[in-house]
Amino acid sequence: MLTIHASDSGERAVAVSGDRIVAVGTLGELRAAHPLARVRAWRGTVGPGLVHAAPVPDAPSPRERIHALLRFGATAVVDGYLTDPGLRAAAARGGLARVPAGSVPPALVPGGRADLAVFDADGVCVATVLGGRLVHRRA
Q: Which H/E stretch holds residue 20?
């Protein structure tokens, strides 16, 4: 199913099908091009997810440590911080990309992997999408 993730202003929107970005534009443009798409209008600004380039936060389990990154809007983590096999496995199961040091978030472009995040005016992550799947949503 095609889903449009849109900023609350409607100025930035991303159409996603499966794990790929179909189109990027305004909400009006994407609704006109894809009238049957489901729309998720988020309170904040839609953009690329973050690359986490620091130690993974402490938590009781590897899964919870990876989820902590998703709550921050990370869609990738520098590989050098995933030295524990359990942490690497949790990152792989969750779809979190492992990248080399110095990596920057890839631009949101048609054909690219649907990894994005939504941040409110205070910079707090409202939602994180990995490979087209909503993996974190702030209540």
A: strand 20-25
What type of residue sits at position 37? A
Domain encompassing residue 62: 50-99
Q: Do residue 35 and residue 55 come from a single domain?
A: no
Tell me the two tokens of residue 92.
């792989």
How many domains is the chain partitioned into structurally?
2
54 and 93 inside one domain: yes
Clarify whether residues 82 and 119 are in a common domain. no
pLDDT in tens, 32-90: 999 999 999 999 999 999 999 999 999 999 999 999 999 999 999 999 999 899 999 99
Of residues 28, 71, 75, the one with CA closest to residue 47: 75
Residue 32 CB partners (closer than 8 Å, separation 6+)? none
Q: Report the distance separating Cα 93 and Cα 80, nearest Å.
A: 18
